[in-house]
Design brief:
Number of helices: 18
Distance between the termini: 25 Å
Radius of gyration: 21 Å
Largest sheet: none
Number of domains: 1
CATH superfamily: Amino acid/polyamine transporter I
CATH architecture: Up-down Bundle
Helix content: over 70%
Length: about 450
């Protein structure tokens, strides 16, 4: 819907619990399954604290987004609220920042999928798997909205079941029910040196990966307009974030209890690493497959999201009108928007071909930072739009502080610092184009 339209024309069909479940399904992906390995390597067992801080920051962002949705439900969601608070330049910048961040998310998911599949076929180059998954993702999106929904529902059930299976089996191993050598309380990391293996700087650097595991609340903000009762949006977010936090913290705690920190690798999920030395020889293989399914689900959802967003940008004249066109002979699909998203996917394939070693960390870091830039704008928009209580003002300020900590923490580790530079480059391009367009609009 264009910003010039009044009100909301989207049918309201969702219940709050459906939105919560959809949020969990959209959020859990490679950022959690594979990115958490990088976070553990950076800071050790204290990575669970990173998740707590990320959950708090995410909650304050979603809280104000949900309240703005309740007061003024719009299809443009956070892009519309940026427009309402600061003007067209803010909507343009937020929209394109979100588009590019999702392109990077797709690249991150794509390369993560290739890394995981390479565990089974180590002699096949990374770019080959990237190309295969990119093509499959495009096929799913070309099935249309109904086909996409059905595929995503199935994939969401599989990946959520896999997490609970790991927590159950890992918990049984920890308590010695099924393992020959159970982990005891004495093995718990109790000293600061054991908890923070690289001191405060490692913990600081790990924050970006904890936040990245919660990326997806913007999509839930967009979906909240479909709630039967818009006032249920905050409740849906609380339940979603609560369940995600419990899932993340429990699974990470079990993983770091089962194997030494040095055993984890950014090329393998920590949950596969955690159980591969125990009696469940088949489990790592099955779980690796479930993670690949989860990553493919998030990859496809991101492609679907950038396609939908580009159509909205085109309707609002913040993108060429060509991208709003839907061709009836192709099931009313926005073929040109899909084509641009697909081009972004295959750019990731080329990147994987040229820079196969550290590219996952770089792209994941950059994607996480761009998402946090938008989260920052969501809170700043809320300060101008909402009549805030003191609690909301304090909470929103805490959210901004945690976002700034997560972004600045990427400076502390040289292995992920290039991701910060990449985010600066893309943001600089978006800001430059926004500046030029803003001058054009004024005239």
């Amino acid at each position: 819907m264009s910003q010039s339209d009044s009100g909301n024309t989207t049918s309201s069909s969702l219940k709050w619990w459906q939105l919560s479940l959809a949020g969990i399904g959209c959020t859990i992906g490679i950022g959690y399954f594979l990115g958490s390995a990088i976070g553990i390597k950076l800071t050790g067992p204290s990575f669970v604290f990173s998740f707590f801080l990320a959950a708090i920051g995410t909650y304050f962002v979603y809280n104000v987004l949900a309240k703005m949705t309740v007061e003024d439900p719009q299809e443009g969601s956070f892009c519309y609220y940026a427009y309402k608070a600061f003007g067209r330049w803010a909507r343009f910048g937020c929209g394109w920042n979100f588009w590019f961040s999702n392109i990077l998310i797709m690249g991150s998911q794509l390369i993560g999928l290739a890394l995981l599949t390479q565990l089974w076929f180590p002699n096949i180059p990374l770019w080959v798997f990237s190309a295969i998954y990119a093509a499959l993702s495009i096929v799913v999106v070309l099935l249309g909205t109904d086909g996409f929904d059905k595929v995503e529902d199935i994939l969401a059930v599989i990946k959520t079941a896999a997490i609970f299976m790991f927590i159950l089996i890992g918990g049984l191993v920890v308590f010695g029910v099924v393992a020959d050598e159970p982990v005891t309380v004495n093995d718990l990391p109790l000293s600061s040196g054991e908890l923070f293996i690289d001191g405060f700087t490692g913990f600081w650097s790990s924050l970006i990966y904890a936040f990245y595991a919660f990326s997806g609340i913007e999509v839930i903000g967009i979906m909240a307009i479909r709630l039967k009762k818009k006032e249920d949006a905050p409740k849906a977010g609380k339940i979603m974030l609560g369940l995600l936090t419990v899932i993340y913290v429990l699974s990470i705690m079990i993983a770091v209890l089962l194997v030494p920190i040095e055993s984890f690798s950014q090329d393998e999920s920590p949950f596969v690493t955690a159980l591969q030395d125990y009696t469940f020889s088949i489990f790592p293989v099955l779980f690796n497959g479930a993670i690949i399914i989860a990553g493919f689900s998030t990859l496809t959802a991101a492609l679907f999201g950038v396609t939908t967003l580009l159509v909205t940008l085109a309707k609002d004249k913040d993108a060429p009108s060509l991208f709003a066109k839907k061709l009836k002979r192709y099931k009313d699909l926005p073929i040109y928007s899909i084509a641009l998203g697909a081009a972004g996917l295959f750019l990731s394939v080329i990147t994987a071909l040229l820079l196969p070693n550290k590219i996952y960390e770089y792209i994941t870091t950059a994607a996480g930072i761009l998402i946090l830039y938008n989260w920052f704008f969501i809170i700043m928009s809320a300060f101008k739009i909402l009549k805030m209580t003191m609690y909301m003002k304090v909470g929103s300020s805490v959210g901004i502080l945690l976002i700034l900590l997560a972004v600045s923490g990427t400076v502390m580790d040289e292995t992920i610092r290039p991701g910060l530079y990449l985010s600066f480059l893309l943001t600089g391009v978006i800001c430059a184009v926004t500046f030029v367009m803003n001058r054009k609009w004024k005239h």
